[in-house]
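---------- Forwarded message ----------

FYI, see the Carboxymethylenebutenolidase homolog record below. Original note from H. follows.
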Amino acid sequence: MANEAQPCPCDIGHKIEYGGLGHEVQIEHIKAYVSQPPSNTDKAVIVVQDIFGWQMPNTRYVVDMIAANGYIAICPDFFVGKEPWHPSDDMSTFPEWLKTRDARDTDKEANVVLKYLKEKCHAQRIGIVGFCWGGIVVHDLMMKYPELKAGVSVYGIIKDSEDVYSLKNPTLFIFGENDFVIPLEQVTLLTQKLKEHCKVDYQIKIYPGQTHGFVHRQREDWNPKDKPYIEEARKDLINWLNKYI
């Protein structure tokens, strides 16, 4: 699932072969992948996994990319040891699988990670990025934690409710025009709600012709027409973090 608009598992796309430049750590009750920047910094970014878990190579590639741009980057296991979704799993079991992995109930894990970044990594300014399931987490946490100075929700959306616009700090929402998991009507509704009520900076950007997972689960060389949009979205993600963190 990418979002609460259509609860079905998304396609894993292109799972890349990537070992990672960071290392794994144990933080209280959860494990995490941490990647360090080229030089010391007090800025950090939490990266929230998609349904395929914190060990997904594609996600770790993004974690390392963010670190290379000057941030302590960390991808915690927000499933807390529970199995991620596997492409071979029976799709009919997905709703039950999802019930034990509520993207709007990650406060305990967020508190642990924030404490680790502040006390162990000496981070003073922290942002958050999430993909698919993690995009919902970002949207949810950006309405709860003022210490998260910037958020980037990548193809994740919360169903319409009275609190979808109560963002504490600037948030970028990235969507693909041809994302079958997230109907554009949901994006339009989110846009209207934020325009009417949001009191902080935000941006909703739809990338032409792109499908679900294009930012982190599609190889740049798969389709020459898509490559510019993949690169643009990644650049937009980094620029948003740079601007507000």
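H. also flagged this: The longest strand covers residues 125-131.
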